[in-house]
Amino acid sequence: MTAHGVVRDGSGRVLLVPTGRHDGWSLPGGTVAHGESPQSAAIRLTRQQTGMATQVRAARLVASDQVPRPGDAVVHTDRLIFDLVPTAGTPAERARWYTPAELVRVPLPGYAASALAGVIAEGGHTSDASVRDFGSTAAGTPTADLEDPDDGWPVERGLAMDDAGRRVQRFSTYARATDAAGRMLFAKIADGYPGAGRWHLPGGGTDVGEAPADALLREVAEETGQVGTIGRLLSVSHRHNPVARGWEGYPINWHTIRVVYEMAVDEPTEPRVTEAAGSTVEAAWMRPGEIDRRALTDLASSVL
């Protein structure tokens, strides 16, 4: 999991850093440390790479890509991109400001091109990430990892974990799903999982090679039987529990990054759990007056 920053100055220019490959440029950022919030990671890495102190204004984009490595290995990276406001400092020599008009000629990795599509449009150009992305396949998937992170995390079952399975990082997507009647969709956590018996937002962890939006649609269907349309990005948060205890039966140093989207369910049905032996035991639509905040998880309560 990586965090990146879109830093703009008063004239609308964007601050980029060189990638060291193909004469390309990219957004400052890199790997999120275990237990670190992605917002803090974006601020920390932007300062290290550009010399600029910043503050987070908003979450801008969530993306993922898969990078082939020698042999049969493929590295899946979930990327969280934030709008950062510069507060102090002078850009380091290696960093450079680009105007919207100049960006159209800058070779960018796919996720950066997607994040900056609106900025490039300000310069009177349109952006096609699959065309502008250097070192990519026809589908626009990078063939070289620009940051080349080496964080020592083996990957298994969609989770990044240490060799003993006692330290885990997980990337998860959730939905604030509503219908035309104003009801909100919830999923109750099954026994044996953290938060058992509480109502949670439908959603869960992404699988290797799965885009965040695809994962969310799959999870909502598995946990509630509903089909929805994904809307705007609502929030990015994280939770670090160094002694989480679940179905494994032993405490795990667990760090999860949580992305929440709006979702509209135009044709709601009676909720039902379609996934067998999963983390959800029940699903329900609730009207605002029916929601008991005491029975919600922290994430569900914060989204309300």
Automatic annotation (TrEMBL):
InterPro entries in alphabetical order? NUDIX_hydrolase-like_dom_sf (IPR015797), NUDIX_hydrolase_CS (IPR020084), NUDIX_hydrolase_dom (IPR000086)
**Domain (Nudix hydrolase) ranges:** 1-121, 166-304
Keyword Amino-acid biosynthesis found: no
Q: Which CDD domains match?
A: NUDIX_Hydrolase
| Keyword annotations from UniProtKB, A to Z | Hydrolase
Signal peptide boundaries: none
The cofactor named in the record is: Mg(2+)
Which GO molecular function entries does the Swiss-Prot or TrEMBL record give? hydrolase activity
The residues that cross the membrane are: none
User: What is the protein name given in its UniProt record?
Assistant: Nudix hydrolase domain-containing protein
For this protein's source organism, the top of the classification is:
Bacteria, Bacillati, Actinomycetota, Actinomycetes, Micromonosporales
